[in-house]
Amino acid sequence: MVRALPSPHIEIDRASAVPVYRQIADALRYRIATGDIEIGTRLPTVHEGSRLWRINLHTVRRAYAELASDGMVQMQRGRGTVVMARAPVPHTVSHDGVGAFVEWAASRAALEHGLSRAEFADLITATSPPRAAQRGVFVLECSEHQARQLAGEIARRWGVKTRGWSLEWADEPAVGPFIATYFHYNDIRRRWPHRMKDAVFVSIRPSQALGQALRKFGRRPGPVNVRLVEREETMARSIAADVSAILPSPRYKLAPQIIKGPLTRLQLEGGALYLFSPRLWASLSDKQRGRANALEVEYDIPGAEHARLAYRFGWQEQGQEQN
Fold first, then answer.
1. Pair 49, 94: CB distance under 8 Å
2. pLDDT tens readout for residues 43-73
3. Total H helices, total E strands in the chain
4. Would the pLDDT of 234 be above 90?
5. Contact at 8 Å (CB) between 186 and 69?
6. Cβ distance 109 to 134 under 8 Å?
7. What is the model's pTM?
8. How far is CA 267 from CA 157, 197, 216, 226, 246, in A?
9. Bridge partners of 112?
10. Using CA atoms, how far apart are residues 225 and 241, in angstroms rounded to an integer?
């Protein structure tokens, strides 16, 4: 028997560094784990979720896709999205609110960072970094260009040795912890399941510089047609969801544009603004990058995520003295 969702309300923190789709997925995952949402429950349709949570369709769809990839829900044509399994927690979840939260947090620590319960307890009760500072770290992304950008950001902030590592490469990084973005959680799980314990995942967001460039382009009157150029539809939708959150006004009309052929054939029409994913931006010619209506969707790591990385690896900001 298919049941309706008991209470569809979900609190969304739009100022959080955590992407909205992940907030939705984690909120539903928590309610499934605690038994508030039972197996067999039908979640709101993508359109219903968009209206209820005041977010775009792609964000709802991405949240559901993440739950589906974990085997917790099944997305069926004509039947909607139905809960199929409980959240993957290591022990029976207490129905007490605090106990359920602790179980959920411990399961996420194990899943995302490979922490045992004892390590997790030590981490949250520690008054100083739990290990000696790690002076070098790999930063993984889908392209060498993006990996180098994020690695450089971390190196400048913390004065540590970093190296970008691209998922375009066939081999894997050397043994030890590495940093990766939530964009590629499933990529790493599929390719290197034995390395999930080494992955430290972080959220990223479109840079402030991109927001400023968008506002500058929008000074002209009338609608602003923005095209998000990518080779893969799924990635285009994910990036478009991120960019949608920083569009200065409803005048901006954003649409993905999937390109299959050589980028040299892409004609940049003067009336539109073209946003390129980082990996495509690196493949453009100097002439194309020099166009006034061509921008890279640059990402950076929010301050809260930087602080979490520093705590995890025992780093201190440049100029701070060691205790």
1. no
2. 999 999 999 998 999 999 999 988 888 778 8
3. 12, 14
4. no
5. yes
6. no
7. 0.58
8. 38, 44, 22, 14, 26
9. none
10. 16
